[in-house]
Write a structure and sequence with these properties.
The protein is α/β, with parallel strands linked by helices. It has a domain of 224 residues: Cobalamin-binding domain (Rossmann fold). Helices cover 38% and strands 15% of the residues. Strands 3-2-4-5-6-7 form a 6-stranded mixed β-sheet. Strands 17-18-19-20 form a 4-stranded parallel β-sheet. Helix 11 links the parallel strand 15 and strand 16. Helix 14 packs parallel to helix 15 and helix 18 crosses helix 19. The longest helix is centred in the last third of the chain and has 21 residues. It is globular.
Length: 583
């Protein structure tokens, strides 16, 4: 064991409050892995929730592991030390299960790196009875597990609170009855809703390389995997379990107030996979609020669409009346009422994030955003009335049906916001900072745009440069954007099928060199990324029974394209809509 690695691990634990260290005994041992660095993983409420769920099971012991920092990874390799868990520093290959919590597709290569560092065979088919079983859950694999199918023994599809206890109870019973690992997995596949073991679902392909079907290997296995979801959020709370200063949100106590969204934005994976919309009532949340305030933390409210919560003003007031401080994630523009704006000012929240998503009303209609220019400027005025002077605006480029006129409309909208703010606040302080967060739209499984191709990254680069150049001289405007070249990789991992596992293996072998891996593997990645899919094609994730039916998703996609066709037929011009000039 390396003294430096041990010391660093202990320093992290010394700064934590709330971690669990159970005694190793006869129960099931699970190492919960987050395929990124410690600070990122510990800022993820889903990861912390699973950690608490597992440790609350009396027959389970759960510890944690993260992707080592580059310098630490070099120490593991140089000294031939297997990657170990945080709590007891046990090597990963001594656990019964390695359970990955994976919210982002771009972290898939890190799954392989953690397995290798933990001395666990990468391929599920190569593991023996002495190796841990590899599990995976999280929104990315709930949308499409197939790119990781070669490396994962069982996916847990859906929400953990109702899924995790039943799965591990079944595994415990099966193991105690003497079943081998294959039989244990098969029994879980037959009896536990939300379990998906890829080994029992071989894939066959057509001559044009699309999927013909995915049928279960044996009778009695479900033909489709049902997503497991929680019906009543008021039966429990979902709070930050471990607090530590070593994370992105070190000053926050995060509590979840809702799941799902009633809006139906056609690009939004979270809005579809977490259906139906559910809210926690204030009476359920009060103990969490008081716990966080008692720890001296700012209360961070988390949810897919928190501004739609029917009790949001009352929740905010409950925090403030208890002399607590508050943090809000992105708010719906049409929910910025005078009351909400006043609460934001009273809470002394420095920056508010809003998401127009697109610059033109035409394109907002295509994506079903449901926000008009008038509503944008009304929200702006209400925030300025309360001296809220820092705004962050989220935009997507490369959206379906996007044209150059839509980029021009985005530029005009940002300029109009700046000009209107200065005119509206004449004689008073105006906007100090207007931050634009611009990202490329990535088609996501189980959404209406799942059939749509990714926009060419060269086109996106050109449009991004146009926006940056046009807004360079605008006062207070700052632009943040992702790197379009990585969007291709994310789209591949979002939309790919089981064969993409070969590319992941090559990326791992080549130490993260995607360009070289894409050249070496005889698989055309453009087939998944840049190809528009026929509406009747069997898609890689069609083995899953999603929250929204395929019929509904298809109707929404056709409505989006029909809206574009109507606009073009009617010569709608720029699609800008009637400018709103304010009061």
């Amino acid at each position: 064991m390396s003294w430096a690695l041990t010391k660093k691990n202990q320093e992290l634990l010394d700064h934590e409050r709330g971690f669990r260290k159970k005694i190793w005994g006869e129960g099931l041992t699970i190492c919960l892995a987050y395929p990124h660095f410690y600070g990122t993983g510990m800022s993820n409420l889903g990861f912390q929730t699973v950690y608490a769920l597992l440790n609350d099971l009396p027959f389970c012991l759960c510890e944690r592991v993260f992707l080592p920092q580059p310098g630490d990874e070099a120490r593991f390799r140089a000294k031939a030390i297997p990657l170990f868990s945080m709590e007891s520093r046990k090597p990963l290959n001594e656990f019964d299960f390695i359970a990955f919590s994976i919210p982002f597709e771009n972290d898939y290569p890190n799954v392989l790196k953690i397995l290798e560092l933990g001395r666990i065979p990468l391929q599920a088919a190569h593991r023996t009875r002495t190796d841990p079983l590899c599990l995976a859950g999280g929104i990315s694999v709930t949308l499409n597990p197939e790119p990781l199918a070669d490396f994962v023994d069982a996916f847990l599809i859906g929400e953990g609170e109702d899924l995790i206890p039943g799965f591990f109870e079944k595994m415990k019973t099966s193991l105690e009855s003497g079943l081998d690992r294959e039989a244990c997995l098969e029994e879980a596949q037959r009896t536990v809703e939300g379990v998906y073991c890829p080994r029992f679902y071989p894939v066959s392909y057509t001559e044009d390389q699309t999927i013909r079907d995915m049928h279960p290997l044996k009778d009695g296995l479900p033909a489709k995997i049902k997503r497991k979801w929680v019906k009543n959020l008021d039966s429990f709370t979902t709070d930050q379990v471990i607090t530590t200063t070593g994370t992105e949100f070190g000053d926050l106590f995060i509590t979840e107030i809702s799941r799902g969204c009633r809006r139906g934005c056609r690009f939004c994976a979270a809005g579809f996979v977490y259906r139906p919309v559910r809210y926690r009532h204030l009476s359920t949340l009060l103990p969490s609020i008081e716990e966080g305030i008692g720890q001296g933390k700012k209360i961070g409210l988390l949810g897919t669409a928190i501004s739609d919560h029917p009790e949001l003003p009352e929740i905010c007031r409950a925090v403030l009346d208890r002399h607590g401080s508050l943090s809000l994630s992105s708010l719906r523009i049409d929910r910025i009422t005078p009351e909400i704006a006043a609460l934001i000012r009273e809470a002394e929240i420095d920056t508010i994030a809003l998401a127009p998503e697109a610059g033109s009303e035409r394109l907002r209609e295509v994506i079903h955003k449901g926000i008009s220019d008038r509503q944008i400027f009304e929200a702006l005025e209400r925030l300025l009335d309360e001296d809220i002077l820092n705004l962050r605006l989220y935009f997507l480029i490369g959206l379906p049906t996007e044209r150059e006129e839509d980029i021009d409309a985005l530029i005009r909208l940002v300029k109009r916001i700046g000009h209107h703010a200065r005119a509206y606040t004449e004689g008073r302080k105006s906007l100090r900072r207007l931050t634009l967060s611009i990202n490329q739209f990535i088609p996501k499984p189980q959404t209406p745009f799942q059939w749509h191709p990714l926009e060419d990254i060269q086109v996106v680069n050109k449009r991004l440069r146009k926006i940056i150049q046009a807004l360079r001289g605008e006062p207070a405007v700052r632009i943040l954007h992702d790197l379009p070249k990585w969007n291709y990789v994310q789209a591949l991992l979002s939309l790919g099928d089981r064969r993409v596992g070969g590319i992941l293996s090559a990326v791992h072998r080549l130490n993260g060199n995607w360009s070289q891996a894409l050249k070496q593997v005889p698989l055309n990645a453009d087939f998944f990324v840049y190809r528009a899919k026929p509406l009747d094609e069997f898609l890689p994730w069609d083995i899953l029974e999603g929250a929204a039916s395929r019929t509904h998703l298809r109707a929404e996609y056709e409505n989006a394209l029909a809206h574009r066709d109507r606009q073009e037929k009617n010569h709608a011009g720029t699609g800008q809509g009637e400018p709103y000039h304010g009061k």
